[in-house]
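Have a think about this chain, tokens included, and walk me through the fold.
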Amino acid sequence: MTQPIRALEDQDEPALLRDQFRQLLRYRALLACGVVVGLLGGGWLALSGEDTYTSTGEVSVRSATSDPFAAGASADKGINIGSERQTAVSDAVGTVAVGSLVKHGDAVEVGKLLTGLQVTNPPNTLVLRFSYTARDPEQARARAQALAEAYLEIRRERTENSIDNMVDGYRAQLKPLTEQRDRLAEQETGTVGSDVTSARANLIVAISGLSQKISELRALDTTPGYLNKKPVAPERPTGAGLPLLLGLGGVVGLALGLLLSWVRLVFDPAVRSTRELVRSLGAPLLGTLPRDRAAAGQLLAIGRSGSRLAEEYRAVAFRLAYDPSFAERRRLLVTAPRGDNDMAAAAAVNLAAAFAEMGRDVLLVEADLRTPSLARDLGAATRGGRPRWAAERDERGWPSDSRTNVDVPGSGAFTLIAGRRMDNVPRALTSEPVGRIVAEGGRPGAVVIVLAPPVLSYADAVALIDRVEGVVVVCDPREVHRSDLERIREIIGAAGGSVLGTLLHPGQGRLERRARGKAANRRARNRRTQGQGRDGQDGHGQPDGSDRAGGGRAGDPTETMGLRTLDGGTRYSGNGGSDHSSTAGRR
């Protein structure tokens, strides 16, 4: 195709993020599982956990001062609030609190008591916030208050002990000075001298200074702080409730689902986006087929009014018709990567009908000689006059069968050369008659569409690429792997062909597979009731009539496609009209 293929690196970053997010949404099952697990975990935490109550008290810390009302006095002088917070949760405070709680009948160990305590410090304050969590509201209040009071008691004792130690030190210094002063006083009474008087005066000054310091220490206000907010018994349990836990569980579960989806996306060998498919195959995207549940079990979509699937096939046919590489040779090979070839067959049939609707002389060749099914699925007979170039060939060979004209009411007509089971498939596909059939695409207004088996399952498609050249790959992006697409591109390029584009289909759902299975079972029952031979053929070596639309009983589901099978000699006009004068009596 001449349309340029934009590389992944050429896209802007928001587009790439949107594309990656859409890829993650492909794994809806993982996302749903993650959310469900998160909700279950949140509900379990909310319902299985016991209610807890938290009581909070606030303590304002202050340092010892001689005159708190003096100008320039500071309450935070010498206070390290971080150290005070560590003191509040120490074993010393816990021991004092345990002694107070025992008096009120609450016997608890120090370690267990401190496990429910949390001490915090609001920023830029000298306040310690004591929060205690327990299963009983009154117990939480009593323990929070006991711990706060124990902290103040410990701090008061430590301040008083420091003052006593300093006073004892000053007194130890004062005692020898006092004794020396008394000795000088005795000497002064017996003698007259200026030296003794001067020394005694100096001792008196030193003694006065030490006595003043002792007096100042004794006058210090040793209040360690105040209980600004007394703990009260909480009325409601603390912690997240059921709605909040469910919400948090849903968010965590969604994050878990996204993580699992990302891991699945990283290790997923399938094509993750249409842009990656285009880059791997080296060909543009012709179209994406919508899911049409009304067409479940039916092969032909064109001819049904109001079908979105038919309109998509028409759009693909017009896009191919105006492509220079296809318009030059008008030969098209339709195949799938591997596995089921049903969607490729549906694409080949509907593209043939769309080209016939455009007024082209369309020849559809079923080159699947291993599991041929078009004649059966379309309800078209494979009997009729043989082409002139096949007059000398064995009737049991391929493509010796007569061409079957398939009329699509209201759309047009195309010619079908149905496949047959062959023992030597490569020889049949590379034979001269096949070359003549494919060469008919060179006639003005003619289009040859060849349906080949999956290119990675058999080499049949490779044997036809050098004659057809243009290839359309029909695949399900959820099932094909990137390595498969790259291999298909290499195989087709090495065989001398080119990929015209890719046609994506949503894959067969459960309803479609069930409908196709029921139709196959009904056809098998019809063949058994008709009493045909073991090989399912009549006396002329042709497939029996049970594979045709009119070969079964009345009400056979294969007749619901609205197709009319005419003799191979019937002449059709390019616009879908037909000359029925020679076959009016047979229909």
Observations:
- Residues 21-49+240-266 form one domain.
- The longest strand covers residues 53-61.
- The CA atoms of residues 108 and 550 lie 94 Å apart.
- Confidence is low (pLDDT under 50) at residues 1-9, 380-395, 530-587.
